[in-house]
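Lecture notes, unit on protein representations.

Consider one protein chain, 296 amino acids long.
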Amino acid sequence: MSSKKQQLTKLLKGEQADILQPYALTEQQRYFEHASQIARSRLTDYGNALQIELGRMLRDVEFSLDVNLCSSVGLEQWLSEPGVLLLDSTLPLEKDLICYMSIDFQAVHNMADLCLGGQLTDEKALVEKVELSSSELRISCRLLQKQTQVLMQSLFNQHLPISAYVYKQQLQFEPYAYMPFKVRFILDNTVVSWFIWLPVELFLADSAGLSQHEEPVPQGPLLQDWMQVPVKANIEMARKQVTVQQLESWLQGTVLPLELFSDMPFRLGKQTLFYGNVAEEGNQLMFQVSTIAESK
């Protein structure tokens, strides 16, 4: 037996592990996390301002409002289902940013009833109705218009006329490009809800470049140790199918021609994180990231 004891890796205690926050690996994910933190810090003010504005739209209705940032898991599939109305509105900034709203037909009927001063329609009476009236579409557009106006006022102190329209295409978002917020319109006996989808850039638009918004990484001995944990990665440069005969020739010293990938995947485990290119510099091979893999 060796006289030297094997050095064992120290495990973090439970209370130490709780201190550590998940750290987004890619730059795009870090932008998203930083924008999410900014959005959460402003939700209370935005919700209060939106409740006042909708109160002017629904003068005789007593309600409260709840706005929360939520996960998009499962929502994008819901967007493609029948019975969901999609709307869009363009914010007049230096770079036009588009906000979206998704609301199901039942919620549209309820908001139209409230705006027109009537009672909420019984859900059973809506089962056979598959189309929205022009009044319901107009009220839905106005609802998104009010939300974007309050957004511009609360974020940029600008009160500008903003239009909203029915969005007739299938809605698909780029990874980490939009954040969904659930708006809950709370009445005494029911809750009407919908979602607004805001671009990440909207919460990073008060500075010239996104790179300036990246949060400084909190320092500390635990995080420093965590950042030094080695991870096993691989870069696939080429792939080729060979016959048994070619393999035997290869073992005898025959050169096997290979064609390198134009975009080489960089993987951690089974997950592809980046694509890039390998180049030789001096006596070393260097890898440079060209694109970030889309999340699945």
